[in-house]
UniProtKB/TrEMBL annotation:
<dbReference type="InterPro" id="IPR036034">
    <property type="entry name" value="PDZ_sf"/>
</dbReference>
<dbReference type="InterPro" id="IPR001940">
    <property type="entry name" value="Peptidase_S1C"/>
</dbReference>
<dbReference type="InterPro" id="IPR009003">
    <property type="entry name" value="Peptidase_S1_PA"/>
</dbReference>
<protein>
    <recommendedName>
        <fullName>PDZ domain-containing protein</fullName>
    </recommendedName>
</protein>
<comment type="similarity">
    <text>Belongs to the peptidase S1C family.</text>
</comment>
<dbReference type="InterPro" id="IPR041517">
    <property type="entry name" value="DEGP_PDZ"/>
</dbReference>
<dbReference type="GO" id="GO:0006508">
    <property type="term" value="P:proteolysis"/>
</dbReference>
<dbReference type="GO" id="GO:0008236">
    <property type="term" value="F:serine-type peptidase activity"/>
</dbReference>
<dbReference type="InterPro" id="IPR046449">
    <property type="entry name" value="DEGP_PDZ_sf"/>
</dbReference>
<keyword id="KW-0378">Hydrolase</keyword>
<dbReference type="Pfam" id="PF13365">
    <property type="entry name" value="Trypsin_2"/>
</dbReference>
<dbReference type="Pfam" id="PF17815">
    <property type="entry name" value="PDZ_3"/>
</dbReference>
<dbReference type="InterPro" id="IPR001478">
    <property type="entry name" value="PDZ"/>
</dbReference>
<keyword id="KW-0720">Serine protease</keyword>
<keyword id="KW-0645">Protease</keyword>
<feature type="domain" description="PDZ">
    <location>
        <begin position="232"/>
        <end position="285"/>
    </location>
</feature>
<dbReference type="InterPro" id="IPR043504">
    <property type="entry name" value="Peptidase_S1_PA_chymotrypsin"/>
</dbReference>
Length: 437
């Protein structure tokens, strides 16, 4: 077998272990144009990146979502070609950091076989990571073993954890999205990030096949990525024996205690606070509990220079940086990340900033203040606020903010001043496109 061959399902050979299906690995070139959540009517300066991907069945390519996030152009290059082919992003899951691409040009698919997926590896199983890391133009191969299997946060933007493989093979910039193979030449995951802690060396992470399979099956079932299910509860560990005893548990029983149930969750009505979950899907749960904006531009609304926005993790990161959980107002973080929604369309709406003008004198220092009500009506979400403000016939616009603060403007003059304020700052519209419908 030469170095360009692709491993099949034939019996294992030493050559397959050394050269695991590298022809299916592609280089990903992406031009990104990211939204500006602090100035939502603008976009940031475009940037470019490289990554890796792998060809799978159905004339499709898997890579990391972060490799093509905010894409304006994506191109793919095969190992045996110098041609870059334009690609289309079919689906993207940020919480699992997976994207599915395709290429319309038949030439791209000629003579290449898709990878086969293998089962979830065990601890100490050998893995080989293949991709295009920074430092060269040719393919790179690194080897290691599975050192840990556990749930991990896939992204700073994700509030949930998914199953991940920790490996000791080197994963560097550009490796993202490349396949990890077992010693039979089958793909057991996608490289997606490395541990950048100062006190941790040679630690990388791989998205395992169960997560990849869910993503692909979800797309094939609905024609889009709809996500991973969540139980919709808050729970606490039951490691304290007195706590277990007070809950009526037997000595040999283990589990977790339900603290709260999301009202919009399917679990609502089935579970309630103080319930104890002993097992899930037939798997016993230990006392320690062992056992995500879709790329659209940010929404905004401006009236009389007052900018309203919906709170999201990207928004908080834009305003307060990566350590937003410690730098943003505590009440805002707690409400957004830990409060339970009462309805599926519930949003936290804030006055993001005030574009100073004569009409809003005295309000210019307001920023990131939660909007509670408008003219006595509670504000459910940004779309709701736009509707009631635009249809307001009262003499005054009265916005109720947190801590009892109010903003009052004369309706007629406020709406009339909006156009001049937008023009002076080269803002194309008083609201984002999604709020115009």
């Amino acid at each position: 077998m030469d170095s360009n061959s692709t491993c099949s399902s034939e019996p294992v050979t030493n050559a397959c272990r050394v050269v695991p299906c590298m022809d299916a690995v592609v280089k990903v070139f992406c031009v990104h144009t990211e939204s500006n959540f602090s100035l939502p009517w603008q976009q940031r300066r475009q940037s470019s990146s490289i990554g890796s991907g792998v060809i799978v069945s159905g004339r499709r390519v898997l890579t990391n979502a972060h490799c093509v996030e905010h894409h304006t152009q994506v191109k793919l290059k095969r190992r045996d070609s110098d041609t870059k082919f334009l690609a289309t992003v079919l689906a993207m899951g940020r919480e699992c950091d997976i994207a599915l691409l395709t290429v319309s040009d038949d030439e791209f698919w000629e003579g290449v076989l898709p990878v086969e997926f293998g089962a979830l590896p065990a601890l100490q199983d050998a893995v080989t990571v293949v991709g295009y890391p920074i430092g060269g133009d040719t393919i790179s191969v690194t080897s290691g073993v599975v050192s840990r299997i556990q749930t991990v946060p896939y992204s700073v933007l994700a509030s949930s954890k998914l199953l991940g493989l920790q490996i000791d093979a080197a994963i560097n910039y550009g490796n993202s999205g490349g396949p990890a193979y077992n010693d039979r030449g089958k793909c057991v995951g996608l490289a997606f990030r490395k541990n950048i802690s100062n006190d941790a060396d040679n630690i990388g992470y791989v998205i395992p096949t169960p997560v990849i399979t869910h993503f692909i099956e979800d797309y094939e079932k609905s024609g889009e990525y709809t996500g991973f299910p969540t139980l919709g509860i808050k729970w606490q560990k039951m490691e304290n024996p007195d706590l277990r005893n007070a809950m009526g548990m037997k000595l040999d029983q283990k589990g977790v205690l339900v603290k709260r149930v999301e009202p919009t969750s399917p679990a609502s009505g089935c579970l309630q606070p103080s319930d104890v979950i002993l097992s899930f899907d037939g798997v016993d749960i230990g006392n320690d509990g062992t056992g995500h904006l879709n790329g659209r531009p940010p929404s905004y609304y401006i009236v009389a220079g007052i900018v309203f926005a919906a709170v999201s993790v990207p928004y908080l990161r834009s305003e307060y940086g990566k350590n937003y959980e410690h730098r943003a107002p505590a009440k805002l973080v707690v409400k957004h990340l830990h409060a339970l929604a009462e309805s599926p369309d519930e949003q936290l709406v804030v006055i993001s900033q005030v574009l100073a003008a004569d009409i809003n004198t005295g309000y210019e220092d307001i920023s990131n203040s939660l909007v509670v009500s408008f003219n006595g009506q509670p504000v459910k979400n940004l779309k709701n606020l736009v509707t009631i403000v635009e249809n307001c016939k009262d003499k005054f616009l009265k916005f109720g903010l947190e801590f009892g603060q109010i903003v009052i403007l004369e309706t007629k003059t406020a709406k009339a001043a909006t156009k001049d304020i937008l023009t002076a700052r080269c803002i194309p519209s008083a609201m984002s496109d999604d709020l115009k419908a």
